[in-house]
Amino acid sequence: MDYVALGRGGPKVSAIGLGMWQAGGKAWGSDVRDADCRKAMERAVELGINLVDTAEAYGEGHSETVMSRAIKNVGRDNVFIATKVGGWHLRPDDVRKACAASLKRLGVREIDLYQVHWPDPWGQVPLRETMKALEALQRAGKIRHIGVSNFAVRDMREARSHLSRTDLTSNQVRYNMLQRDVEKEVLPYCAREGIGILAWSPIGKGLLSGKYHNGRRPKDRVRSDEDLFKPANVRASAPLVRELRRIGKIHGKTPAQVALAWLLRHRHVVPIPGGKRPSQAAENAGAAGWSLSSRELRGLDAILRRTRLDTF
Ligand SMILES: NC(=O)c1ccc[n+]([C@@H]2O[C@H](COP(=O)([O-])OP(=O)(O)OC[C@H]3O[C@@H](n4cnc5c(N)ncnc54)[C@H](OP(=O)(O)O)[C@@H]3O)[C@@H](O)[C@H]2O)c1
User: How far apart are CA 56 and CA 100, in angstroms?
Assistant: First the structure.
């Protein structure tokens, strides 16, 4: 496994992380099992992945509880725990209580990266109050680093202006070959400012793995409303998936691994693919440690320019 600094001078994390939303329950399908998710995390750590991402929102804390068992088995020091405070808990007192509840569920004394899951959806809590509460938690030794998620550049600027002793370590955003909005502003800003990026949905919720098509669609709650899986979008992405498979064959890699390697072009981007079982975690770990040639990247970019998805 390769390791990178998350943000300039930031903590050392694996080049690929593991997302644990899947461990939240059956929203990701009837094939989700606590034991498989726990073992996925244990396998990931065995292969050198240390960054594992969860949130209080995932199964109302169930994902954190599942993680706690894996943390015990692999050893606290081998995991960089990233979790999130939900958008309904942004008042200072709620931030403190949410953090205490996450620490308890995770069974640890300190969270490595505590992220604001999304900007206040109702615009009622001044960001200053939330950021000051996070800094207080850091001073108290409850969290090591402060991060945000789904923040636009203006939100990051404001969040940073309220931090007096520290800076944002990372912004966690949606980023994959088919959903690239962050390339316009967020990515360049974070690269310039030394803020790390955690890329969520890095394999397009499984679409870029090549196992889905209009004759075989995921049936779970998370993906039934997902724009990426609209029949027209699944059809439009087929040429890209074919090319991922062709390139993968050359390198002895799978389409999902090629899609993840495409994100690893950016040194400050750490993809956090979700895994439901050990085999997925292992496959995704195999996206690190090799790279696409510039010719392959150019070819993929040409296909992406021709790929038109129903807008979202
Ligand atoms: N901050 C946020 O707002 C936010 C939002 C979304 C997600 N996240 C985080 O980001 C993580 C990843 O994003 P995501 O779960 O949305 O999407 P993703 O990682 O692109 O897709 C994960 C899904 O793809 C399938 N998969 C995983 N590895 C595979 C492989 N090697 N081959 C074939 N299929 C594979 C699995 O589902 P099937 O096997 O059922 O196909 C898995 O549930 C989450 O776990 C969560 O931690 C954060």
Answer: 11
Helices marked H in 162-195: 186-193
| CA 18 – ligand 1 centroid, Å | 9
Please give the mean pLDDT across all residues of the chain.
96
**2 CA to centre of own chain:** 17
For domain 3-203+255-291, which CATH number applies: 3.90.550.50, 3.40.50.720, 1.10.3720.10, 3.20.20.100? 3.20.20.100
**What residues flank ligand 1, with Cβ below 6 Å?**
19-22, 28-29, 53, 117, 149-150, 172, 200-206, 209, 211, 218, 256, 272-276, 280, 283-284
CA-closest candidate to residue 39, choices 18, 62, 10: 18
Stated pTM of the model: 0.97
How far apart are the C-alpha atoms of 309 and 138, rounded to whole Å?
42
Distances (CA, A) of 297 to 38, 67, 253: 35, 36, 15
Atom of ligand 1 nearest to the CA of 220: 40
CA of 89 from ligand 1 middle (Å) equals 24
Torsion angle defined by CA atoms of residues 64, 108, 3 and 207, in that order, rounded to the nearest 10 degrees:
0
How is the chain split into domains, by residue range? 3-203+255-291
Q: pLDDT tens across 172-227, in order?
A: 999 999 999 999 999 999 999 999 999 999 999 999 999 998 889 998 999 988 89
The interaxial angle of helices 255-263 and 238-251, nearest 10 deg, is 90
Give the integer Cα–Cα distance in Å for 304 and 166.
Answer: 38
18 neighbors 53 (Cβ within 8 angstroms): yes
Residues 309 and 236 sit within 8 Å (Cβ to Cβ): yes
For 25-46, the pLDDT digits (tens) are 888 988 899 999 999 999 999 9
